[in-house]
Amino acid sequence: MKVLIFWFASLCAAFSAPALTFDEMTKVIKVDVDQKSVSADFNFTNKTDQTIEVSRADAGCTCIQAGIKGGLIYKPGESGMIRFSYDLGDVVGTVDKPLHVFLKGDPESKPSISLNIRVEVPELVVLEPKTLFWEVGEEAKPKSVTITMKDTKPIKVTSLSGADTRFKQELKTIEEGKKYEVIVTPASTEKVAMGVVHMETDHTSRRYRTQRVFMVVKNQPKAAAAAVNKP
To answer: Which residues lie below 8 Å from residue 132, measured CB to CB, with a gap of 6+?
Structure first.
């Protein structure tokens, strides 16, 4: 039995590849309102007694570019870094993006190390809720989305438009530049339907200039539909 346990432990050790030690596994970055991209470094050290070869760093997203600085082979005690840049686009709020580090011998589906990039972009135009729902057969009554502007300066809604005639939309000003309400009424709830309302603001940043409200008429859950139709 002791021989079997020793053999099993040795086998596990053989398949447990040495890993690099990172200063941080999650990099948190707070973004300015007009910032279009961010970049930062993940620093690491080989604290094992073996030489480690890094194959690549892969974010799995075209919006993130990652590169290994300091070479690919690290002897015990040597350090390096992975530098990434993230094209933010119109991202708003808190977004997490994985960054996978593959060492030599790692299978494609299982990197040795998984890092996390967390970007916090100020949410200056808040929609609550972002999607309005009706169930098929429900009364076609109006529902509303509240828009709250959280900038230090007023943000005005300049236009509201929706191309889908199955939904009627109306903008109500509660406090100019601070708070609005979008009221949406479906023409009918007899059938499943989806629509979108486009809202434009006067903010200088594209990130906050265009907002969307989604509307959905969906089927009832099976249990609820069965209860309604039960004789």
So the answer is: 143, 144, 145, 184, 213, 214, 215, 216
Ramachandran angles phi, psi of 228, nearest 5°: -65, -40
CA distance 193 to 206: 29
Tell me how far apart the alpha carbons of residues 143 and 195 are, in angstroms, rounded to a whole number.
14
Element at 95 (helix H, strand E): strand 93-103
Where does residue 72 fall: left (phi above 0), alpha (psi -120 to 50 degrees), or beta otherwise? alpha
Mean pLDDT of the chain: 88
**How many CA atoms lie less than 13 Å away from 70 in the CB half-sphere?**
18
Query: Sign of the CA dihedral 132, 34, 203, 164?
Result: negative
96 CB burial (10 A radius; 0-12, 13-18, 19+): exposed
Backbone angles phi, psi at 227, to 5 degrees: -65, -40
Q: How far is CA 162 from the centre of its chain?
A: 26
Give, as one character, the DSSP assignment of residue 83: E
End-to-end CA distance of the chain: 67
CB of 114 closer than 8 Å to CB of 127: no
User: Helices (DSSP H) in the chain: which residue ranges?
Assistant: 2-15, 206-209, 222-229
**Length in residues, the chain:** 231
Place of tokens 């969307």: 212
| pLDDT tens figures, 23-73 | 999 999 999 988 999 999 999 999 999 999 999 999 988 999 999 998 999
